Amino acid sequence: MLSFERSAALFARAARVIPGGIYGHTAPAATMPGRSPYYAQRAAGCRYWDVDGNEFIDFLCGYGVHLLGAQHPEVEEASARQARDGNAFNHPTALMVELAERLVGLVDFADWAVFAKNGADVTSWCLQVAREHTGRKKVLKIAGAYHGSHAWCAPGHGGWIDEDRVHIHGFPWNDLNAFHDLVRQHRGQIAAVITTAFHHPAFGASELPAPGFFAELEATCRREGIVLVLDDIRSGFRLDLGGSHRTYGFTPDLACYCKALGNGHPISAAVGRAELKRAAGHVFLTGSYWNSAVPMAAALKVLEIAQRDDAVGRIAQAGARFRAGFEEAAAKHGRALRFSGPDALPFVTFADDPDFFLAQRFCQAACARGVFLHPHHNWFLGAAHGEADIDQAVAAIDAALGALSD
Amino acid sequence: MLSFERSAALFARAARVIPGGIYGHTAPAATMPGRSPYYAQRAAGCRYWDVDGNEFIDFLCGYGVHLLGAQHPEVEEASARQARDGNAFNHPTALMVELAERLVGLVDFADWAVFAKNGADVTSWCLQVAREHTGRKKVLKIAGAYHGSHAWCAPGHGGWIDEDRVHIHGFPWNDLNAFHDLVRQHRGQIAAVITTAFHHPAFGASELPAPGFFAELEATCRREGIVLVLDDIRSGFRLDLGGSHRTYGFTPDLACYCKALGNGHPISAAVGRAELKRAAGHVFLTGSYWNSAVPMAAALKVLEIAQRDDAVGRIAQAGARFRAGFEEAAAKHGRALRFSGPDALPFVTFADDPDFFLAQRFCQAACARGVFLHPHHNWFLGAAHGEADIDQAVAAIDAALGALSD
Question: Which residue of chain A is at minimal alpha-carbon distance from B132?
């Protein structure tokens, strides 16, 4: 058994001075209470070490941020070099212009780009841009989709009021009938439709777009004058270096990126079509650190390396190998489970496991064998997951599946 | 004359791919179009260099972030050391616990702390905590006060809808009658009062709290069950290392910090009383980079050095010397102007200058002489402003005031 003694001791201290001890998406209650690390020490490539010295092959990639693997030497070199000159100034640096030019060159429909820190900074701002552009209030979103911790969409927790959501209407993923019903019901009042590139709800299998789903969303938005917003925070640059809309064959008006862009350095971005540039210029957008140079130096290097090294192709290959090995191990142990989502961001759900208790037991067993998985949040692969890492992880997962029956 | 040729060339490129070229609080339109740098190159201590190689003594401090001066060697050493181990992980690091303990030890009323990236992350979240705690919707704020770029309070720009502000009610700074009117009008419905420690509106002189103002706010909040939120984003740790409420003799229930905390590294924080811990645990709070280790390593070092070196005292001294020299130069040139705000975050407005044109001309003249000031946003001093720097700046300001009459 691994020891999580230091994690537990730190958490006991934290609980006295931090509400919940650890909050948000990294809260232990959200993973495997008592059976997983609570605090990290360091990371390198596809591995990390917790404060008890336990080593894990990481299939969360820092919840998606490590596209190229943690501590990628060239990214760290570029960011450290910029850090010697400075990070936050009274003005942006030339890096902001270069990065905007790079994104406009990379994302086919993008005519402009802006930068912030968090995913929610840009998803919320894009809805404001859509409202400014259209003069309308309503927003359609996929029911159960996460677009950040802001009041208009934070998952079922406290602190939001009815007014935060009175103009937010949800429809089920892939349900075009429900979508068209909402469009009819609120015709002329809908500013935006916001969607992820595939559906990756918490506590549920991931779902890819059905054939024609995005084509119909896009055609309807064009016809009705609705702004189509792609929340590509999780999947952006992991499925296609030109943005995940290319994977699924549609074209949004605005798109949001974050996770993979900085390989661990804090940056998010929104890009958009020329038609929306005027409205974008009229919606206030700022934060103390949104012009910061270090994450922009990192992002430029990330995009350069991802292209040079075909990160997307390598991640897809690693993901396919992982899935094949995982499914083979599951078959061997007679476990009915479902691999869902694209190979680069896979997720596994077990049959007859409505409360995710089996998933939690399985993830605990994998964790005890040095593989970090999440029982109810999609996983992430990165370009640092080599064949040997995948094979080692699959062997541990094989053993973990075996131990489930003990 | 200084040349801003490279800034102008970069801005021309930027305008093609970024709405407005530069957006938000660092937009050139907000300072001195054509007569000031648009892009920074590097910074050190109280000085920075723009992309044209011009050197400035910085009285904005990166809009407040450089408490100890840019690129403070010990802060940079601590952050670079953490950067070698990693920044964003699947979990927080021990630094988050240490930093929460440090803030709870430092801020007298604080029983707990949480961390985010931007000021608005925590000001908006504190209002949610107040709503969760009280079960009420309404928020009172000072008219014209800035609490971040979120829709409920972004300054007069597009993209927000009536519903974002239907429960936000403003009253003039220091106007207790207007405050009491609102409290009477909305009795039992007010979740929070949010205020800065002194009033620092854009396009206006700063205003200190009138005697009794905060005492009355606090007493009323206690009596009415309203949560008192201090937005200490700009002034926190610059007026008192225990928080700016100590400077003005009151005690909030929640307080927000950002700017000075990381000395250029991206971090914000909220702290609160024990009574609010339960509600705080129920309001979702998360972001991809909010647990990141590097800014927490920086913040711990910033607080250590600020205490050891009496940063607050040094900043106050530098600010007093700056003010004395400035006022003497103004008298010499027969310029009627008003120094407002605390010496650590001063601001200067000219008499008979309702459109701030004279302020802009003056700031341009100072900029041409190597001193960066802002015509309509409060200034910031830091612990790196030495006597020689202040004297050099005052001499340049003297010349700039003289040139105004030419």
Answer: A159
Q: What is the DSSP string of B20-64?
A: TSS-GGG-GGGS-TTSS-SSEEEEEBTEEEETT--EEEESSHHHH
The closest alpha carbon to A111, from A294, A278, A271, belongs to A271
What are the φ and ψ backbone dihedral angles of A116, each rounded to 5 degrees? -145, -155
Task: State which residues form the domain around A355.
Answer: 5-68+310-404
Side-chain-facing half-sphere of B154: CA atoms under 13 Å: 21
Task: Tell me the chain A residues in contact with residue B50 when contact means C-beta distances shorter than 8 Å.
Answer: 91
What distance in Å separates the CA atoms of residue A86 and residue B260, rounded to the nearest whole number? 15
pLDDT 10s digits, B44-91: 999 999 999 999 999 999 999 999 999 999 999 999 999 999 999 999
How would you classify residue B255: left for phi > 0, otherwise alpha for psi between -120 and 50, otherwise beta?
beta
Radius of gyration of chain A (CA): 21
Interface of A with B in 29-68 (CB under 8 A): 37-44, 48, 50-51, 58, 60, 62-66
Is the whole-model pTM more than 0.90? Answer: yes
- Closest-CA residue to B255 (of B241, B245, B266): B245
DSSP string across B347-375: EEEETT-TTSHHHHHHHHHHHHTTEE--S
Q: Percent of chain A, pLDDT > 70? A: 99
pLDDT digits (tens, 9 = 90+) for B1-48: 799 999 999 999 999 999 999 998 888 766 677 789 999 999 999 999
Q: Which residues of A touch B39 (CB under 8 A)?
A: 91-94, 97
Residue A288 and residue B65: Cβ atoms within 8 Å?
Answer: yes
Residues B153 and B226 placed together within one structural domain of the fold: yes
List helix spans (H) across A18-72.
Answer: 61-64
Q: Report how far residue B120's alpha carbon sits from residue B270's, in angstroms, rounded to the nearest whole number.
A: 11
What CATH number does the domain containing B11 carry? 3.90.1150.10
- The model's pLDDT over B197-235, given as tens digits with 9 standing for 90+, comes to 999 999 999 999 999 999 999 999 999 999 999 999 999
Last residue of a domain, one of B293, B308, B323: B308
ipTM of predicted complex: 0.97
The answer for B 255-314 residues in CB contact with A (under 8 A) is: 258-259, 264-266, 268, 277-293
Of B244, B276, B308, the position where a domain reaches its end is B308
Residues A216 and A327 in one domain: no
Distances in Å between the Cα of A42 and the Cα atoms of A55, A189, A362, A397, B117 are 10, 49, 25, 23, 21
Cα–Cα distance measured from residue B5 to residue B34, given in angstroms and rounded to the nearest whole number: 9
